[in-house]
Design goal:
transmembrane helix; 5 helices; membrane; transmembrane; 0% strand; globular; mainly alpha
């Protein structure tokens, strides 16, 4: 059980720092605190709302890390909420990406002449897909309750 919590603690710390860092970069670029050409605009677009969403997801993961460090079982709840938020926003950005592909390639729309596949890929999409891969690969680690913890 201790090893499983250590794995989840490392996971929440890594994902929380990643989401918070990328979200912070997007917010700073969107508000003008960083120049728009600081890191590629296609990798980290200047989007205040998108950056705030990523920062909130990161804060959820980091709060899970705090709960795990206290030895609390409630840390798992924050892991679940963080994963659900990651998957929901990843799915939302995936649908946006698909709509952009349709607008640019299938039904050429105005304003999409210079659009490329790389410009449609956003950090939330990548992080959501990675979260899905981690969740499916390590699904047993994210179980809510172990079978030996259930008493009848």
């Amino acid at each position: 059980m201790e090893n499983e919590n250590r794995t989840l603690t490392c996971f929440t710390l890594l994902w929380g720092a990643t989401y918070l860092g990328i979200g912070g970069l997007q917010v700073m670029k969107g508000t003008g605190l960083l120049p728009h050409d600081f890191i590629s605009a296609s990798l980290f677009p200047p989007a205040v709302a998108g950056g705030l969403v990523l920062a909130i997801v990161g804060a959820v993961y980091l709060h899970g890390t705090v709960e795990f460090s206290k030895g609390s079982f409630e840390g798992k709840a924050y892991v679940y909420v963080g994963i659900v938020l990651s998957l929901l926003f990843g799915a939302l950005y995936l649908l946006t990406f698909i709509a952009d592909v349709v607008n640019a390639r299938v039904l050429p729309a105005d304003g999409f002449e210079q659009w490329t596949l790389l410009s449609g890929i956003k950090p939330a999409l990548c992080l959501g897909l990675i979260s899905l891969a981690v969740y499916t690969a390590e699904g047993k680690t994210f179980r809510l309750q172990d079978s030996e913890g259930i008493t009848e």
